[in-house]
Specification:
The chain is α+β, with helices and mostly antiparallel strands. It is built from 10 helices and 14 strands. Strands 1, 2, 3, 4, 5, 6, 7, 8, 9, 10, 11, 12, 13 and 14 form a 14-stranded mixed sheet that branches.
Length: about 375
């Protein structure tokens, strides 16, 4: 079978094969809301000057079996700005699947096509939910340097009948104390599934809370800045049209003082964002709202609640108290054979070599890049909880 590769300049053009894309996304088991066309189109609409999108399509026997929406920009490395390619949605997409359904023997041809169309020093795919180990080995073999780093191990909770009983141990007492504080101040918990007519009002309420929180102060929130705000409003409006946006709110006198925002697909709820007003930090509302989600899931027949992303080390995510398992998320970095790619990969290997000798304890969290002649070695990286 011959793989037919082609390019599309935009996800929003009428020429983009929407129906084929949805069929492919439905077929890939690890696909998440961050692979949703509404999310990615919003990401494309929010691109900054200097950022350019190209979509690689692959067909076998007339069937779409590969779709990689990619974004190219110049990224600073010390005094230099070098061309880097990311999956569209970086850095606000917490977990993606590579939408491909074809043998790994085609991987080198796919990478060559990306290098021709989007010349770069570095191709970096972050928060990949599945390892695609055969593809990783093929791409490593044709890269000047290749690195596969573990971004984080995400706690997940499988919803079961046991959740109808009160949680045991220390979380029980934390929940009881939080409920008493919330009852004492008169706040109420409310569940909301956003619709196209209510989503903007809801986003206004929760973005106001985020802006008043430490995330707003540090400008790291999902609504911080016009670009992110535009992206989130358009993306959540699109997802709300399919009933995927769920929010649990804590309200006092009709005003939102705390919330958890999640994306629901295939019976899996992704805990994407939370915030609370600084003056209400003593309530402990996050744990209560998480418990509310679990009860909501029991009633609605959800299967899982996931933390969509957590810190690599010392994560304070409350789902750790309830987790029944974990999922690994990876960052794949392929350095090209261009002069800038060779230099960047060499600099990375030199830095890792120096770090391993200057900081012997760093062996507990190895970060070892590979080249075409080496077996790949896992490494560890992290992200702050969103």
């Amino acid at each position: 079978m011959t793989l037919q590769l082609s390019w599309c300049d935009s996800l929003r053009t009428p020429a983009f094969p929407v129906a084929d894309y949805e069929a492919l996304r439905a077929h890939v088991p690890g696909a998440t809301p961050f692979n949703h066309l509404g999310w990615l189109r919003a990401a494309e609409a929010a691109l900054l000057p200097g950022q350019h999108v190209q979509v690689l399509l692959g067909h076998l026997d007339g069937r779409l079996c590969l779709c990689l929406p990619l974004m190219r920009e110049r990224q600073r490395f010390g005094p230099l700005r070098l061309p880097v390619v990311h999956h569209l949605g970086h850095p606000l997409s917490d977990r993606i699947a590579l939408l491909l359904d074809l043998p790994a023997s085609h991987a080198p041809a796919v990478l060559r096509a990306i290098r021709r169309r989007m010349p770069h020093a570095l191709l970096q795919l972050s928060e990949v939910s599945e390892q695609n180990s055969d593809w990783v080995r093929q791409w490593a073999a044709v890269s000047s340097t290749f690195e596969r780093r573990l971004s984080c191990r995400v706690p997940v909770h499988r919803i079961s009948e046991a959740d109808r009983q009160e949680v045991s141990g220390d979380p029980r007492y934390k929940l009881r104390r939080a409920r008493k504080r919330i009852a004492a101040c008169g706040a109420q918990v409310r569940r909301v599934t956003a619709t196209p007519t209510t989503v903007v009002e809801l986003l206004e309420a929760i973005s106001t809370v985020e802006a008043a929180s430490w995330k707003g102060d540090d400008e790291v929130g999902i609504f911080s800045g016009e670009q992110r705000r535009q992206w989130m409003y358009q993306a959540f409006s699109a997802l709300a049209g399919e009933g995927m946006v769920t929010i649990v709110l804590l309200e006092l006198d009709g005003r939102c003082i705390s919330y958890r925002l999640g994306l629901l697909e295939r019976g899996r709820l992704y805990d994407y964002n939370l915030a609370f007003l600084p003056e209400q930090r003593e309530l402990g509302s996050g744990r209560v709202l998480l418990e509310e989600w679990i009860h909501w899931g029991l009633e609605q027949g959800w299967s899982w609640i996931d933390a969509s992303r957590v810190s690599r080390a010392h994560s304070s995510h409350q789902l750790h108290e309830r987790q029944t398992g974990q999922l690994e998320q990876w960052r794949l970095s392929s350095y090209s054979w261009r002069l800038d790619g060779l230099a960047l990969g060499l600099a990375l290997r030199a830095w890792r070599w120096w770090k391993s000798r200057a900081q012997p304890d760093s062996s507990q969290t190895p970060t070892i890049p590979i080249n075409a002649s080496q077996e790949h070695t896992d490494a560890i990286d992290g992200h702050r909880q969103r």
